[in-house]
Amino acid sequence: MSDASLQPHTSADTGEAGFGDFVALLKPRVMSLVVFTALVGVLVAPNPVHPFVVFTSILFIALGGGASGALNMWWDADIDRVMKRTQGRPIPSGKVAEGEALGIGMALSGIAVVMLGLAGNVFAGALLAFTIFFYVVIYTIWLKRWTPQNIVIGGAAGAFPPMIGWAVATGGISIESILMFAIIFMWTPPHFWALALFMNDDYTKAKVPMLTVTHGRKSTRNHILVYTLLLAPVALSISFTSIGGPIYFAVSAVLNFMFIWGAFGLWKRQEADAEADKYQSERKFFRLSLYYLFLHFTALLVQSAVGPTWGAIL
């Protein structure tokens, strides 16, 4: 395959797109994570927010996340056609034209940012605008095809939603919102590197410089263990802030023990064994990483709802 086939913005034969195709363009699975972590950011903040403001703010944060997904698919249409995992997406499958994806992404970005600024506050709207810019320009256009650190640096884009939610409630940032950001930021590399361990052929074909492609699977396993060990104290540290407490601490302690144990198991794996069982352990660790993040933010919600938080105790 020639390098020319991997250039962005190639034309596609488009078919009749249905409503579901346009929904898929917004990456609803990713959007669900954006919505959930942003909602947690709003609800655990110290300032009460009117339910209507919460609803409208989360709606426009979700639109901003969807806009980012559409713009990501527009730019990555060429490599999506090459990768088995992404060939069924709306653009490579010919359902949505690249120009349509670009238009939808730009329009939704503008609507989301302006309306969040009106529904929430200007700071939250500006933070959403920066998040969209970071994901589309810094990660998708620049880092993803340039460096194996793409996921490490680019992971910041997915870590901003709880900060945006917190900003809706408070109009600013704090140590609590920074630590919520830090959990997702530190979680993203082991999460995606686990995926890359069993999807490495896709990244190789698409010439995306994931760590598995540039440094090999053994180095990737080492990196997963290191980042998992660094993640644990970050996650546990929220226990001792105003939004943490004994419930969150207990949940986080169990989850981090399981995550470290899983990462250690991957670190010990020999490649021959992984190939023999079709990377089952790597797939299990990837699924565990999804539960890890979801349950941490669920624990923050439960802690806030039933208390007592350390802020109340102290």
TrEMBL record:
It is found in: Cell membrane. GO terms for biological process: heme O biosynthetic process. GO terms for molecular function: protoheme IX farnesyltransferase activity. GO terms for cellular component: plasma membrane. PROSITE patterns: UBIA. It is a multi-pass membrane protein. Keywords: Cell membrane, Heme biosynthesis, Membrane, Transferase, Transmembrane, Transmembrane helix. The chain crosses the membrane at residues 30-46, 52-75, 96-116, 122-143, 150-169, 175-198, 224-241, 247-267, 288-306. It catalyses: heme b + (2E,6E)-farnesyl diphosphate + H2O = Fe(II)-heme o + diphosphate. Its EC number is 2.5.1.141. Pathway: Porphyrin-containing compound metabolism; heme O biosynthesis; heme O from protoheme: step 1/1. Converts heme B (protoheme IX) to heme O by substitution of the vinyl group on carbon 2 of heme B porphyrin ring with a hydroxyethyl farnesyl side group. NCBIfam families: cyoE_ctaB, PRK04375.1-2. Belongs to the UbiA prenyltransferase family. Protoheme IX farnesyltransferase subfamily. This is Protoheme IX farnesyltransferase. The gene is ctaB.
